Amino acid sequence: MEGKSLVAGRVRSFTGGRWPGLVGLLLLGLCTAWPGDQAVAQGFFGGIFGGQPSYQPYRPSQPYQPYQPYQPYRTPGYSQPYAAPSYARPNYAPSGPQYSQPEPNPGDQMVSRPRPVIRRAPSAPSAPAVAPQPAQVAVAAKEQNARKVLVVGDFLAANLAAGLDQAFAQETRLAIVDRSSEDSGFARNDRLDWTKKITDLINELHPDYIVVLIGTNDRQPLVTPAGRAAFRSNEWEDGYVKRLVTFADTLKAYRRPVVWVGLPPVRSATASGDFEYLNGLYKARADAISASFLDVWNGFADADGKFVPQGPDVDGHPQLLRSQDGINFTRAGQRKLAWYVEREIRKIGGFGVDAVLQGSLSPDNHIEVGPGGKRVLVGPVISLSGPPPGASGNLVGDRPPPSPVTGSPQYRLVIEGEAPKPVPGRVDDFSWPAGASSAPAATAQASAPK
Fold it and tell me: Which of 108, 178, 356, 415 lies 20 to 30 Å from 401 when distance is taken between CA atoms?
């Protein structure tokens, strides 16, 4: 009894009571007797209670099918593939009277706008439009005794001579003689010594006018007896002025009109400053020999005195005056440079003067170097009492005076002493009463007793 009670007590303690224990045993029996796959049951409970688990290989439900291209879905019973329905815009017009379709709103339509244009600010103000370069004028044949204008200097003098040739192209009584040398100057006597060359030119050509434009190539050291002197140094200026004095004294001894043209501005600011310095030396020497010094600086500079390639030409039109190198001149610039000299030549002496006034301009005159190196003018012997050869005894413009016209008011007043009759109402009408005619007064005077 004791053994049974002991087992029963253990069962009750395990099942937690009588009825709960019976329910547990019943469920255990059902699980062990489940009519299923034995292998599955073994695997499940074997894994829980320490048995050997069993594994089954994977078997797909359908065999593998290779990739097939997409086929549109076809509705069963239809031969055409399925297409999504097209949705048309419903017509909201009322069912009564028919109304016209309203016009589309421009705001609902896509408007193609032009692509915006990007305007960039110019880097520099645009230059004014310039006139075309003047055409070359054909130079007319000069007269045999035409006056000569001798142009000497460097390459800028050649530009000036070309402009003068155009300025006096149709003037047959004036000829331009260009004897400039492009690479010459006063600083390099080894290339061309203008103090000697000018004497040879005067004796050869006997010019009536001399035009000088020189100094562009003189921005360089000067060779002096003491050595090489730097440009614009005191030694350089002393040696340079001595050569200017010798050159100017030759021009003065020739006693011909001399026009000395100053240097114009150039693109280089440094060179322009040096040219202003040289112009001061040239002007002082030109004034010493009573020559005309023409300052052309402002004609080719702006309001600040700086170089400008463009400017008004001789007719006042905007024109390109300087070439691309910023030193030489275009045809319009040559013509404007020559305009200053042309005006001076026309002012100094007119054309068509009678030969009697040309005694001092005899072609027999020449320059000689006297004692001490002084230049003197030597000419032919001219009689002080007799008239020049070929001249008449009449004065220039001499003509008989006009004879007076008799019967004119001037003749009656000056020759006969008869005062003119007063005009009634004029300030010199002294008849009385005022406004009375002079005829009754004359009649009364004639009838008066003597």
Answer: 356
